[in-house]
């Protein structure tokens, strides 16, 4: 399979420009770390980038049949949003352990939602695709989706030299980009852009220990799926995918420098600290890269670092519990 290239990512950047926010690089309270807050997107997560790119590249006749997707929540909202932008219908299969807030938000955007047992997350959408002939907008295992997510890396590479808190045009660029890993679409696209534009920078994936299939795959040198029961244990609901996708795995193998894991307590502590110290709302999945910086600095290279805070769709009850005391 061919890897996505920088030209595809630049094309995606033009396609998403009317609808996706070019999120800023924000200096964090922790020296040496900048935050890329994708929580500022219209649907509260980076997934809008890949969804808009993929839907925009469909043949209009095919797109008019309506869209199919499957998601644990944020991609569901992104596809629903894209369907509304292009004036078509959307039907999204969501596992029944997804947060209610994300299910409700998907419905509020006008999509039909079908809840299924987590074991049917991938099989049920394929059944629907074969039965209806509608195009599938996958959450990560597709070049158009990867290209769209890669615009995050493109913006980091272009914006970092003049980011707030920098000491002027010193010529010192970003050294490390920390990216959460689930199905692998985001880290794949970011790695393509960063390695093309900042070749000396390192791209490091971050996962929950309890959903560490990508870290294990990286260590073993082959895709190593986990079970739904395994990955369902983590509070980071956006990172519960059983395995990175086949195309993302090709990108990870070729371009990613390391994958580290963080504990549940580290994720929750970081979610709280982002809210109270950085004044930034992040869901646990979005806090994972920052958790690596705060709790595992010994695993990371020295130098200026950017953490992609991938989303902010946190469950209100969890937020209240974390900051209430």
UniProtKB/TrEMBL annotation:
Q: Which domain of life, per UniProt?
A: Bacteria
Query: Where does the record locate the signal sequence feature?
Result: none
Q: Look at the named UniProt entry and state the broad enzyme category this protein falls under.
A: lyase
Q: Which GO terms describe its molecular function?
A: L-serine ammonia-lyase activity; threonine deaminase activity
Q: What is its EC number?
A: 4.3.1.19
Domain Tryptophan synthase beta chain-like PALP: start-end pairs: 21-311
Q: Name one GO biological process term.
A: L-threonine catabolic process
Function, as annotated, reads:
Catalyzes the anaerobic formation of alpha-ketobutyrate and ammonia from threonine in a two-step reaction. The first step involved a dehydration of threonine and a production of enamine intermediates (aminocrotonate), which tautomerizes to its imine form (iminobutyrate). Both intermediates are unstable and short-lived. The second step is the nonenzymatic hydrolysis of the enamine/imine intermediates to form 2-ketobutyrate and free ammonia. In the low water environment of the cell, the second step is accelerated by RidA.
- Give the family from UniProt: Belongs to the serine/threonine dehydratase family.
Tell me what this protein is called.
threonine ammonia-lyase
